[in-house]
């Protein structure tokens, strides 16, 4: 098993064990020289093996291995838009999905910077309009969105998060899920998110995310 394969298998099991995705949902990819390695379609992230990974080109062509995730086109769009992205994760994390279904979120930036870690790891979070899973009509919008935001929500579906590597993408995904949970907990409470200046300062000094209000 390659190191990348081992990392994908371990992360899939860890995400599943922590209920960050469930059933046969979610997909994970890592950029390699020929394109990216991605989890197969229809499997559970709980029980992957490295032999299950498919190799897909940046144009979305299936190069080898089993049938890739139906969202491989989304992963490809993110890699094309973000040359610095080394990994992409999509999950059905419960609280993030709840936000993606919420009628009151701003589609340009779905969550406020409630905490410093959210401002540092996630930042601006666009919400893309609903498409059925695997609908490649979403590809151009996903690519445009990924050019200015490393994390976004698919409406009534779930998060897609890129990182410099698998650990960075997982950090941002977990921070997004926890902030979605906080936001839902605080829905009926008066809250005081970070100011734009505080969020921008954190981003500038420690950020791996997309500055709120920025277009990169
Ligand atoms: O929601 C879906 O069907 C997909 O986005 C998904 O999460 C799992 O699909 P595969 O990666 O094709 O198994
Ligand atoms: Zn999905």
From TrEMBL:
Domain of life, per lineage: Bacteria
SUPFAM superfamilies from the UniProt entry: AraD/HMP-PK domain-like
Keyword DNA damage carried by entry: no
EC number, UniProt record: 4.1.1.104
A Pfam family that the UniProt record links to this protein: Aldolase_II
Residue ranges constituting the Class II aldolase/adducin N-terminal domain according to the UniProt record: 6-184
Keyword terms: Carbohydrate metabolism, Lyase, Metal-binding, Zinc
Cofactors that this protein relies on: Zn(2+)
Catalyses which reaction(s): 3-dehydro-4-O-phospho-D-erythronate + H(+) = dihydroxyacetone phosphate + CO2; 3-dehydro-4-O-phospho-L-erythronate + H(+) = dihydroxyacetone phosphate + CO2
Function comment: Catalyzes the decarboxylation of 3-oxo-tetronate 4-phosphate to dihydroxyacetone phosphate (DHAP) and CO(2).
NCBIfam families: OxoTetrPhDc (NF043034), PRK08130.1 (NF006000)
Protein name, per record: 3-oxo-tetronate 4-phosphate decarboxylase
């Amino acid at each position: 098993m390659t190191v990348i394969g081992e990392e994908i298998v371990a992360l899939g099991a860890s995400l599943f064990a922590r209920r960050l995705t469930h059933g046969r949902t979610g997909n994970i990819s890592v950029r390699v020289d020929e394109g990216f390695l991605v989890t197969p379609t229809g499997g559970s992230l709980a029980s992957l093996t490295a032999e299950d990974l498919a190799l897909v080109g940046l144009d979305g062509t299936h190069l080898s291995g089993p049938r890739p995730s139906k969202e491989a086109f989304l992963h490809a769009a993110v890699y094309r838009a973000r040359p610095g992205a080394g990994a992409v994760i999509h999950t059905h994390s419960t609280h993030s999905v709840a936000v993606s279904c919420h009628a009151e979120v701003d589609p340009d930036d779905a969550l406020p910077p409630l905490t410093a870690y959210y401002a540092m790891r996630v930042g601006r979070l666009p919400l893309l309009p609903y498409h059925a899973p695997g609908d490649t009509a979403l590809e151009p919008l996903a690519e445009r969105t990924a050019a200015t935001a490393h994390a976004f929500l698919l409406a009534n579906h779930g998060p897609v998060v890129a990182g410099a590597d698998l650990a960075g993408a997982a950090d941002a995904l977990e921070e997004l899920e926890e902030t979605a949970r906080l936001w839902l907990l605080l829905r009926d409470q008066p809250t005081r998110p970070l100011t734009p200046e505080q969020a921008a300062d954190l981003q500038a000094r420690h950020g791996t995310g997309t500055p709120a209000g920025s277009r990169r």
